[in-house]
Amino acid sequence: GQQLNQSPQSMFIQEGEDVSMNCTSSSIFNTWLWYKQDPGEGPVLLIALYKAGELTSNGRLTAQFGITRKDSFLNISASIPSDVGIYFCAGQIVQGAQKLVFGQGTRLTINP
Amino acid sequence: NAGVTQTPKFQVLKTGQSMTLQCAQDMNHEYMSWYRQDPGMGLRLIHYSVGAGITDQGEVPNGYNVSRSTTEDFPLRLLSAAPSQTSVYFCASSYGSRRETQYFGPGTRLLVL
User: Residue A89 burial by CB count (10 A; 0-12/13-18/19+): exposed, middle or buried?
Assistant: First the structure.
């Protein structure tokens, strides 16, 4: 099946630093999604990308849909303690369908 | 709205036992899905449904059954639990339109001994 390779697997940063993580795939996706998961909770959507080359921001978060449609990145600027959690990328081959393919996740830890 | 609810929150089973994980949503969403989350592997799709009476297999369907008799409910059944099914299970739902996001429930943590 399709696989998404997400990196890095974990990050340890100081509060205030910028964060960057990315996902790559051997398959073409028509939608890229970025989720955040807090401990004991389900994933919550942060940003959705629907078009190759699209750059979308949500507050301090910025994500891009790669031109090749095989990759995406997420940046977090000026990190704060509540950014701690696990970030997942997910891709859909068919937009609107239920078949999401998830990356392995990036665990973000912030030292105050 | 309660959103997506899942019960139980935590369950311990012995190998060979059966159980049903419940999922309900009150948003009138057509699409519902079940995922399992294992360490270092992200979430993997087990089964999904595009509407009442319609279900299909995802990436890892073996050992699980589903049915969708109503729009609101999408139970996941383990007929004979195995230790390999120890995981955290998430249910999700969406309207299913082109740009609709999936909303996830809080999860059920299952331990099979």
Answer: buried
3-state secondary structure A37-52: ECCCCCCEEEEEECCC
* Contact between A22 and A4 (Cβ < 8 Å): no
**Tokens 């051997």, residue?**
A26
Q: Tell me how far apart the alpha carbons of residues A47 and A63 are, in angstroms, rounded to a whole number.
A: 7
Which of B5, B9, B29, B43 to probe the A interface (max A CBs under 10 A)?
Answer: B43
pLDDT in tens, B70-96: 999 999 999 999 999 999 999 999 876
The 3-state DSSP class for residue A78 equals coil
- Nearest-CA distance B31 → chain A (Å): 7
Find out whether A90 and A30 touch, Cβ atoms under 8 Å. no
Amino acid (one-letter) located at A63 = A
* Partner residue opposite A42 with nearest CB, options B41, B101, B107: B107
CA distance A5 to A2: 10
pLDDT in tens, B35-50: 999 987 789 999 999 8
Angle at B48 between CA A49 and CA B39, to 5 degrees: 70
